Amino acid sequence: MREITLSQAVNEALAEEMRRDETVFIIGEDVAEAGTPFKVLAGLVEEFGTERVIDTPIAEPGFMGLAVGAAMTGARPVVDLMFGDFLFLIMDQLCNQAAKTHYMSGGKLTVPLVLRTNLGATRRSAAQHSQSLHALVAHIPGLKVAMPSSAYEAKGLMKTAIRDNNPVVIFEDKLMYQEKAPVPEEEFLIPFGEANVKREGTDITLIGTSSMVQVCEKAAEILAKEGISAEVVDPRTIVPLDEATLLASARKTSRVIVVDEGHQSYGVTAEIASRINEKAFYHLDAPVLRMGALDVPVPFSPALEDITVPTPEGVAEKARMLVAGEMIHAA
Amino acid sequence: MPLDVIMPALGMAQESGVIVAWHKQPGDAVAEGDVLFEVETDKATMEVEAQGAGFLTGVVASDGDQVPVGDVIARITDTADEPAEAPQPKDDTGAAQPATDDLPEGQTVIMPTLGMAQDSGLLVAWMVEPGAKVDADDPLFEVETDKSTVEVPAGVSGYLAAQLAEAGEDVPTGQVIAIISAEAPAQTVTRSAKGAAPAAKAPEPQAAPKETKAKPAAKLESPKARQTSDPTGRILASPKARRLALEQGLDLYRLVAAGVSQPFHASDIETLAAMPDEVAAPAGAAAAASLHLTADIPAEGFTAFMAWATETAGMTDGAAVMAGLAGRCLDKASAVVAVEAFGQRRLFDVPGPYLSAVTPVDDATPNLILRDLRATRISGLHLGGEDAPVLSLTTSGTGLTLTLEAAQGQITPAATLSLLGDFAGRMEQPLRHLL
Amino acid sequence: MAKAKTNTEDYMRMYRQMVRIRTFEDNANQLYLSAKMPGLTHMYSGEEAVAVGICEALTDDDRITSTHRGHGHCVAKGANFKEMFCELLGKEEGYCRGKGGSMHIADQSHGNLGANAIVGGSMGIATGAALRAKLQKKDDVTVCFFGDGATAQGLLYEVMNMAALWKLPVIYACENNGYSEYTKTEEIAAGSITARAEAFGIEAHQVDGQDVLAVNALTQKLVARARKGEGPFFIELMTYRYHGHHVGDINREYYRTKDEEKDWKDNRDPIIRFRAWLVDQGIASEEEIEAMNAEIKEDASAAVEYALAAKYPDVSEVDMHVYTDITHACA
What we know:
Order of helices and strands of chain A: EHEHEHEHEHEHEEEEHEEHEHEHH
Strand order of the largest sheet of chain C: 1-2-3-7-6
Number of domains of chain A: 2
Distance between the termini of chain C: 46 Å
Number of helices of chain A: 11
CATH superfamily of chain C: Thiamin diphosphate (ThDP)-binding fold, Pyr/PP domains
Largest sheet of chain C: 5 strands, parallel
Radius of gyration of chain C: 19 Å
CATH superfamily of the largest domain in chain A: Thiamin diphosphate (ThDP)-binding fold, Pyr/PP domains
CATH architecture of chain C: 3-Layer(aba) Sandwich
Structural class of chain C: alpha/beta
Strand content of chain A: 15-25%
Low-confidence stretches of chain A: none
Largest sheet of chain A: 7 strands, mixed
Radius of gyration of chain A: 20 Å
Strand order of the largest sheet of chain A: 3-2-4-5-7-6-12
Shape of chain C: globular
Helix content of chain A: 25-40%
CATH topology of the largest domain in chain A: Rossmann fold
Helix content of chain C: 40-55%
Number of strands of chain C: 7
Mean pLDDT of chain A: 96
Order of helices and strands of chain C: HHEHHHEHEEEHEHEHHH
Low-confidence stretches of chain C: none
Oligomer: heterotrimer
Number of domains of chain C: 1
Distance between the termini of chain A: 50 Å
Mean pLDDT of chain C: 94
Number of helices of chain C: 11
């Protein structure tokens, strides 16, 4: 099968959907000629014109609001938010308006928009351009949240997102744009709410999101050499969340570590860990661990930045302890 | 058409208003827009206008009254005549009287069930003075069990506000013997356990699943009498390990006794399962009965059934029939049931479902002992386990009490439930159960 | 298509709509004061000519976005009393099945994209609806209602900027009622309100908001031009609200005098003025007008009675309409 980069996968998904449905358009900063600073959208304005790939002034609340209004009246906008950190700027339009309109109107108005943005640190971009804020939007009823972990997921999830009639936020890991993965040429969609077992195992379950899936896979390799069989599961969407697959894996291995690049505290790991604790309690032979980014603003210095995120060695170390029955915390 | 005059909503978060002054008197003519009364809000005084024209009648609130928002306080009617029923103002002056109590408020402490054979514990001594501060982990009192003297921790922090039993007294398990209050009490209460209001007794339910579950748990977690690594006597084990132990009827304490380090994990259960069987069937002398269930049936149908069976099927041996009924309640293809009555023991082979197939045997090890004490005055018993589970029948009013006792390991908790439950049903309505 | 308003029917409908709004608000106010209505609401009384004058120049295809003070817009854009009262009381037959309430009331069938509890929260939506019209080459126009207080919101400038850049068919209608909550407008809005729009090159007009004919005439002209792609436009309508900021704002003397209120009510009331004009022009007689008023009053009373007796939504609805494709979000 051919291999393409995550960037190319997203590009393809958008182009295919824009060909398929003329109400789909892209709006954001530097999306047209520039194709965004990450070059993900290169070539789209040439094919679809400036009426469907719309450059905006630097006005995030403004163009997010515009997208909400356009979506409410018959269009299907894909909003490009250049850095996930800018979510804070658009929270009213996204969380007070888009997320709630269907409910507040008793089901009469819909907001079929996609917000495309990114996450991920270790790019030396410092605290305000390196955050992984998906937990914030996962917390808001009315939004769906997708987290592709490779080029394959990026294409399949984006297509589903555009066809979904609800507001969807997709987070791409900005460190992964040049990473390749096998992606079929034929059209395919990845449904929301379906996790994927990336690697089967029996001794411990590693649940990862976005690029942390790769971290978990590498940790599984390390553990395999030590005779520990780790299962790696990718939820793919955190809202809706495929609990059943995660719980089945927890019951099978009886040990779980949830790895995510949001901060350690009050994040997605806590939600997933809680559900496993609640619903697979009698199958757990070890406490469910959360591994997130350190609870600090992302530091600039490479020496410091790199130790704030989970690594394969870090995950493997924790896994070893759990399998050995060691006490992670005092009783 | 009469209009209600109500105390209006006056702004955010205000639930009542005080009438400062009426501007109209009962019987006065009012026009739409006339000021009826002034009400005081938290900010200022507000005038309330009439919403229609008519006469002011049915006034039920006066100057100075505080009225909840929404209450009707007057009417505007077509004539000045007072209406037959005046609107009733809400009366919210009566607050609920707090129940008087001669006991201080606080958390109650009960005489615990400590895996004892009897239903009560002997209070040896108090270890905290009345009124003193106590921490949750501090020992509060000493109790003598059949094995040793056990220190019972307070369980909650605070001040010992009441001692409701005296040293040397036998206190039924479950009865409240102390109260620990959050604040230092002005006075403390000290009294004897006798004459206390009947406590929620350690339950004697119809078919007691609670007690069965309590026993293994008490055994696993009984404090002080065991050496464990947790000072509160708790054994540390993962949820999976506990579930596996419970499912397989294994006792985690044996791992503790064997020196296996905690916390226990699922792999330790494999070790546990492989350990030689110690408590399966104690030879000879009775092991402590760890299973004790009772069932009460208000009216027994067995006597009538026997009369019918004798007449229609020629079955004259009541003991055999009873053995047959009981044998079918064991989860076995065939069983040997001993029936003891009037000092005699008879053994029966119960080979299958048909009562007519029950035959006496001379020499066999019974799977179940039926002890028929209906002719005696005995009403309740705790005799402990014997060589096999014992199902005793005693008279209770117009019905029967059935008591099932077994030593730990003789029969699983689940099997005791079905044995007793089924047998009780059969003794109550034999025909229905047989058909 | 909006016809030129020159005939009796149109004038009578304008008058009727204004009285309907006033009557609705009087009833809503009573529902609040008699503690029968949950929550708070914001009275439009006094501003009727603004909503009516503008909405009478629009069709059902044209969109509006509304504010927290939205009953007037809702009635003016064609809503019925029954469903509106039901919505205010949280009943199932409300426009939003009771799930929006006064501050989020939306009547999609007549192009009302909804009231908004966030000040300025609907400006993006309105501009986005206009963007969609332009992209899809439709000729509907969107009117964005907002108050003088909302001119303090940054979103206004972001969206006016983009509307002007892209010549969107949107009309920004600023209802200047002299107060931003409990503070005089001159204390919260520096400089000139119309100059703000003109700074973006947007043609701005000021009109007496109590004169329904003036409002309507101006709006008709601007709507026609907006349909032809000459938009956006900005109108500042000078008006006054009789009640407090919300229904509980009863003791107002600390921020405005009773004399000032009386002056507007007695000398500048839009309904009294238009009535006088109708009688003077021989378009309607006092008796006809009285009859109409009485009929509207009865309609409103009947609708209130209906709404008070109507049923609440079934509790199973609490988690419906969170998403379009998940019937019960919390199942």
